[in-house]
């Protein structure tokens, strides 16, 4: 089998950008993902609006046209699909990477399809852009794995006139609480800190704060979740224990990169920050031939890297390989 020049693990915007830059440099790239194209964006809330303007999401010098000032989820999904089509990228979707072995210049990537079929691909270089959205930060409390508890929010209509608890205090939790409230849901926001997170979008913050002040969204701060039952969320704060009725619970407590997979490649992670050891210029890890791109570079600090800056990592890697 003729080896690929680079295999990009992860078919999000960063992985696609890396493959596009490789193609433009005359290389032969392959992109592998355990889910669909842009799997993370696909699982965003249905009506999500991006924080940024269209040009900051663009890859491969292709324009992203949006109807409003800020693009929405469906516009991004269509755009990245068209980018993959335009550059005729070779993709293996719904294939999970089981392991990578070999060395710089001669890697073998072993995958498994949804049907359990194993496949092998050879590559000179590896690019890891696996993101973080697939792995929620769990609270480790009883009932967290019940079927009515979700770490992802889609849309509100199922929960009209029902009691819903949203756990978290950052952007996702605030936007979810607002969307639920505006669609006739009785929503309670539970946050362990004294106030909402500093990273909430500037146009969302006054909205959620005013809804809380007006009592339209109930909010419990400095409150910890102790247990989730099929009917209630049991919380504890300075006033004691409280039971909140809940037909649905959205535990929007953040997400983290797949540290175990990254370490299985031989990449060293800082024990505290979980940031990988890499050359900041070439993005090559301590394992020769394995480069990292996108949010995985940030370790625990997942808020440091977005599509806006992660999309340039592909060019950085390919420029280093050309040099």
Short description:
The chain is an alpha/beta fold. It has helices at residues 13-24, 39-42, 73-86, 171-181, 205-213, 259-264, 307-310, 313-322; strands at residues 4-9, 29-33, 91-93, 95-103, 106-113, 118-128, 149-150, 163-167, 186-190, 218-220, 224-228, 232-237, 240-245, 248-251, 290-292.
Main sheet characteristics? 7 strands, mixed
Helical residue percent band: 10-25%
Shape: globular
CATH class of the largest domain: Alpha Beta
Q: What Rg, in angstroms, do the CA atoms define? A: 21 Å
Structural class: alpha/beta
Q: SSE string, helix = H, strand = E?
A: EHEHHEEEEEEHEHEEEEEHEHH
Count of distinct structural domains: 2
Overall mean pLDDT stands at: 95
N-to-C terminal Cα separation, in Å? 26 Å
Please identify, by name, the CATH architecture of the largest domain: 3-Layer(bba) Sandwich
Helix count from the secondary structure assignment: 8
Tell me the strand percentage band: 25-35%
Beta strands, count: 15
Briefly note the CATH topology name of the largest domain: FAD/NAD(P)-binding domain
């Amino acid at each position: 089998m003729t080896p690929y020049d680079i295999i990009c693990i992860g078919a999000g915007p960063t992985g696609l950008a890396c493959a596009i830059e490789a193609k433009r440099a005359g290389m032969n790239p392959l992109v592998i993902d355990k889910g669909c194209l842009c799997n993370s964006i696909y699982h965003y809330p249905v009506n999500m609006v991006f924080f940024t303007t269209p040009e900051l999401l663009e890859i491969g010098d292709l324009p992203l046209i949006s109807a409003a000032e800020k693009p929405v989820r469906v516009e991004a999904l269509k755009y990245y699909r068209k980018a993959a089509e335009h550059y005729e990228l070779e993709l293996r979707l719904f294939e999970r990477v089981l392991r990578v072995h070999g060395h710089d210049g001669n890697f073998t990537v072993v995958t498994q399809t949804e049907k359990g079929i194993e496949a092998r691909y050879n590559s000179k270089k590896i690019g890891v852009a696996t993101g973080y959205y697939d792995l929620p930060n769990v609270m480790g409390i009883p009932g967290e794995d019940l079927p009515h508890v979700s770490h992802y929010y889609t849309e509100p209509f199922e929960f009209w006139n029902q009691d819903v608890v949203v756990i978290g205090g950052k952007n996702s939790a605030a936007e979810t609480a607002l969307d639920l409230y505006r669609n006739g849901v009785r929503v309670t926001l539970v946050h362990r800190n004294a106030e909402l997170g500093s990273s909430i979008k500037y146009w969302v913050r006054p909205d959620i704060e005013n809804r809380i002040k007006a009592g339209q969204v109930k909010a419990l701060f400095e409150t910890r979740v102790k247990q989730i039952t099929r009917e209630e969320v049991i919380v504890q704060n300075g006033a004691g224990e409280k039971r909140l009725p809940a037909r649905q619970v959205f535990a929007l407590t953040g997400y983290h990169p797949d540290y175990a997979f990254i370490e299985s490649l031989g990449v060293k992670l800082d024990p505290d920050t979980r940031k990988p050891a890499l050359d900041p210029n070439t993005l090559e890890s301590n394992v020769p031939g394995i480069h990292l791109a996108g949010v995985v570079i940030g370790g625990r600090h997942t808020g440091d890297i977005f599509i806006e800056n992660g999309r340039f990592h592909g060019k950085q890697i390919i420029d280093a390989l050309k040099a």
